[in-house]
C-alpha cells in the first residue's frame, strides 16, 4: 500500500488531468527538495488548466537512489505540503511520469532518454557546484575533477555538463532538433553560466559540436524562489498524519512561490504562465534582486545565526538584532545595488522576506544554508561589495557577513564544538586554517581565494573591515557583534 494505491483524504488536492497522455518532454536533472515543490508542482498546476502532454522524467546524477526507488513504487506520484502560518495545504503531484538513475540503470540509459525526439527541455536544479564553473567568473573550471573525467571519457560522462553535451551530440548525429537547457539554480545569470559550462566543455571535446550548440541551443535564465527546507522526520510525520499513509518522497515548503523565466526556448515550452510563472525578455534584474536581497541575507543569517546558537532561520528572527540587521542589510546595502528599483517596491519586498523568514512552521536549518558558501558568496555578497567600493558607500553588514563565513569555515563554534562544514573547497579552506589558525591572520589568505572574491583582497580597506569584523566575532561572539553592527547603522 502506498499513496498511489489508497484513497487519499478529500482534503488532499489531487490531479484531475489525464496522466496517461503525458510524455517525457522535460528531462529534469536534480530530483531534490526544491524541484519537487517548484517546477514539478507548477507544471502540475499548468496541466490542470491546459491538459496536454508535458510530462517530466526525473534524473538524479548524484545520490537519491532510494528516493527514485520509492517514487517508482508509488507510480511517480508524491505530495507537497505548503505550510502557512495557520494552515497546511497538501497537493498530490501528477506531472512526473518517469525516472532514471545512472546507478540504478546506467549512464547510457540517461543519455538515451535525453536524446529521445520528444524531449524539448532539459532543466536542472543541481546546486551551484553542479555547473563546474569558477563561481567568480562563471567560466568552466577545466581543473574540476568531474570535468577532467568527462574530457577523458565523454561518452560515459559523470557531470551534468558532460551529460548535456553528449546528449546534444547524439541528437546532432541523429538529425534531431536540440532541447532547451534551462537552469533553475540560484546562480546569477544561471542561463549564461550553463551556456558557458556547456560550450566550454564541448570545445574541449569537439569543436564542431561546440559551434553547433552555440548556433542551435538556447539557455534561458530563470529566477526561482520558494523556500523548501530539507525534509525532517517531524515534517514527514506531519505529512503522514495528513495523508493517513507515509510518503517517502513528500516534501514541505512555504506558501510563497515565484518563477520568472526568459522566454527563449528552441523546441517549444509549456504555458507555465497559466500557473503563475512570468515569461520576460530579461530575467537578470529579477535574479539580482532575489539573490542579493533574499539569498544574501539568508547566508548572513546562516553563518551568524549558526555561530550565535540558532538552528533555524525562524529562530534568528526571534532576536531583534538579527531581524533588524537582516532588514538593514537588504535595504541599505543590497537594494541600492539593484536596477529593478522602479518596477518593484523594494521596501515591500524586504518586509515580505522578513515575514517569510519568520514563518515558524518552516524549519529551515542555518546549517543547510551555510553549506557550499564558496559557491554562494560571489552572487550573494561579493557583487554588492564591488558596487559599494566603487560608490564609496557603507557596506559594514556585508563585511560582517563575509567575516561570519570565515569564522564558520574554521570548523569550530563558539563553544569549541566541531562545525560540520560542507563545501567543495573544504580542502583549500582547511589548508589555510591549518597554516594560520583561529586568528585574524587567517582573513587575508581566505580573501585571496580568487574564485570567490576575485581581486578584492587587493583592496586594503575592504580587507581591514573584514579583519575587524572577524576579530569582533572572535572576541565578543556572533550575537553581540550582530547587535553592535545593527545599532551602529
Ligand atoms: P537537495 O539537496 O534536495 O538536492 C540537490 C540535488 O542536486 C540532488 O538532486 C542531487 O542529485 C543534485 N546534485 C548535487 N550535486 C550535484 C552535481 N555535482 N551535479 C549534478 N547534480 C548534483 O537540494 P534542493 O533543495 O533541491 O536545492 C537544489 C538547488 O535548487 C539549490 O542549490 C539552489 O540552487 C536551488 N534552489 C533551492 C531552493 C530551496 O529552498 N531549497 C530554492 C531556490 C532554488
Ligand atoms: C537558501 C536557498 O539554501 C540556500 O542557500 O538560501 O535555497 C533559499 O531557500 C531559496 O533560494 C529560496 O528561494
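Sequence proposed for the structure above (489 residues):
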Amino acid at each position: 500500500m502506498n499513496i498511489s494505491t489508497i484513497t487519499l483524504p478529500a482534503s488532499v488536492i489531487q490531479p484531475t488531468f489525464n496522466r496517461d497522455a503525458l510524455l517525457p518532454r522535460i528531462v529534469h536533472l536534480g530530483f531534490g527538495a526544491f524541484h519537487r515543490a517548484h517546477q514539478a508542482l507548477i507544471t502540475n498546476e499548468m496541466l490542470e488548466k491546459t491538459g496536454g502532454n508535458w510530462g517530466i522524467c526525473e534524473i538524479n546524477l548524484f545520490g537519491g537512489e532510494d528516493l527514485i526507488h520509492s517514487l517508482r513504487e508509488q507510480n511517480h506520484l508524491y505530495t507537497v505540503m505548503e505550510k502557512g502560518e495557520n494552515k497546511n495545504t497538501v497537493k498530490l503531484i501528477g506531472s512526473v511520469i518517469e525516472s532514471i538513475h545512472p546507478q540504478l540503470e546506467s549512464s547510457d540509459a540517461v543519455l538515451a532518454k535525453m536524446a529521445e525526439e520528444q524531449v524539448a527541455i532539459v532543466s536542472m536544479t543541481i546546486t551551484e557546484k553542479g555547473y563546474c564553473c569558477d563561481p567568480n567568473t562563471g567560466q568552466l573550471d577545466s581543473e574540476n575533477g568531474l570535468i577532467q573525467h568527462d574530457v577523458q571519457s565523454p561518452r560515459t560522462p559523470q557531470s551534468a555538463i558532460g551529460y548535456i553535451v553528449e546528449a546534444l551530440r547524439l541528437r546532432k548525429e541523429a538529425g534531431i532538433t536540440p532541447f532547451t537547457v534551462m537552469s533553475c539554480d540560484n546562480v546569477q545569470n544561471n542561463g549564461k553560466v550553463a551556456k558557458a559550462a556547456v560550450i566550454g566543455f564541448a570545445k574541449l571535446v569537439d569543436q564542431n559540436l561546440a559551434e553547433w550548440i552555440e548556433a542551435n541551443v538556447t539557455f534561458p535564465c530563470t529566477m526561482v524562489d520558494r523556500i523548501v527546507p530539507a525534509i525532517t522526520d517531524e515534517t514527514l510525520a506531519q505529512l503522514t498524519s495528513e495523508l493517513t499513509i507515509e510518503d517517502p518522497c513528500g516534501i514541505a515548503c512555504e506558501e510563497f512561490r515565484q518563477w520568472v523565466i526568459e522566454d527563449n526556448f528552441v523546441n517549444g515550452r509549456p504555458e507555465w504562465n497559466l500557473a503563475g510563472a512570468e515569461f520576460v525578455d530579461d530575467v537578470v534584474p529579477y535574479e539580482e534582486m532575489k539573490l542579493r536581497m533574499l539569498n544574501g541575507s539568508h547566508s548572513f543569517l546562516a553563518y551568524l545565526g549558526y555561530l550565535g546558537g540558532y538552528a533555524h532561520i525562524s529562530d534568528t528572527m526571534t532576536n531583534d538584532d538579527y531581524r533588524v540587521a537582516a532588514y538593514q542589510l537588504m535595504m541599505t546595502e543590497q537594494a541600492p545595488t539593484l536596477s529593478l528599483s522602479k518596477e518593484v517596491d523594494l521596501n515591500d519586498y524586504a518586509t515580505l522576506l522578513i515575514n517569510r523568514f519568520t514563518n515558524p512552521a518552516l524549519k529551515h536549518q542555518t546549517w543547510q544554508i551555510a553549506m557550499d558558501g564558496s559557491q554562494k558568496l560571489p552572487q550573494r555578497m561579493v557583487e554588492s561589495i564591488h558596487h559599494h567600493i566603487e560608490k564609496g558607500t557603507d557596506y559594514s553588514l556585508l563585511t560582517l557577513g563575509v567575516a561570519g563565513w570565515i569564522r564558520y569555515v574554521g570548523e569550530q563554534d563558539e563553544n569549541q564544538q566541531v562545525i560540520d562544514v560542507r563545501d567543495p573547497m573544504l580542502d583549500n579552506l582547511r589548508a589555510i586554517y591549518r597554516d594560520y589558525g583561529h586568528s585574524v591572520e587567517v582573513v587575508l589568505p581566505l580573501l585571496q581565494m580568487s574564485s570567490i572574491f576575485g581581486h578584492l583582497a587587493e583592496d586594503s580597506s575592504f580587507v581591514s573591515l573584514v579583519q575587524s569584523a572577524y576579530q569582533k566575532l572572535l572576541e565578543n561572539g556572533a550575537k553581540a557583534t550582530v547587535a553592535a553592527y545593527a545599532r551602529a547603522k
